[in-house]
Target: tRNA (Adenine22-N1)-methyltransferase
Amino acid sequence: MKLSKRLTAIDTLISQHHDIIWDCCCDHGYLGMALLKRAAANQVIFVDIVATLMDVLSAQLSSINKLQKTCDKKPQWQVLCQDVGKIEIAKNKSQVVVIAGIGGELLLSLMQQIIANNALDNLEHVRFILCPVHHTYKLRIGLKTLGLGLISEQIVYDNKRFYEVIEVSFNSQNEISNTGQSMWNLNHAQHKAYKQQLINHYNKMLNKDAVYYQKVITDYQGLGDS
Ligand SMILES: C[S@@+](CC[C@H](N)C(=O)[O-])C[C@H]1O[C@@H](n2cnc3c(N)ncnc32)[C@H](O)[C@@H]1O
Model:
């Protein structure tokens, strides 16, 4: 299975070997399967709330296991059918938590739950790789409020849509900006188009809350033109 540009961008960020990688809201599980295939971690944990999807994925992973019986050092996998907000992060393990392909507001709510449900000690060294669909401005403010710091951020154009891949951790002291300041190259036509798309969208939202959305627009305009 060839990964999309968006999932490839996330996969590329996972260059070091880890104890555990979480593919949260995994759906088809393409990303986790690619990570398993290249043994990126000792264990890959797939999490999604839809039981039928997780049954199909478990069956697929079991059949891959049977085919690979001869390999001793193959990484382990686990499929959890549950709410991502309730995942339990083990202590003293190097871990990456990926949450991709859901709305930014839901993603923030899941992050708030994960952080409320796990001891800060256990979360300290976890890298979170987040790729929401829309609402990145609100998500970024929420992540900053949770005390997370920025590791990296990038814009990915995939299948005629723009995405932001935001990598954060409690271990980073770099402030998360509302607009993703470090990811923009406004000499790049695609980045210019994305900025304009955001400004157009927030202009349409002005009638909902003029003060708030004017601030959002001003922040994006403040990125400059090039
Ligand atoms: C569009 S898929 C994303 C698939 C993959 N992560 C990607 O980026 O291509 C979104 C998935 O999120 C799952 N989901 C939504 N809310 C969830 C929650 N609270 N806990 C676990 N899974 C959830 C849905 O069941 C769905 O399979």
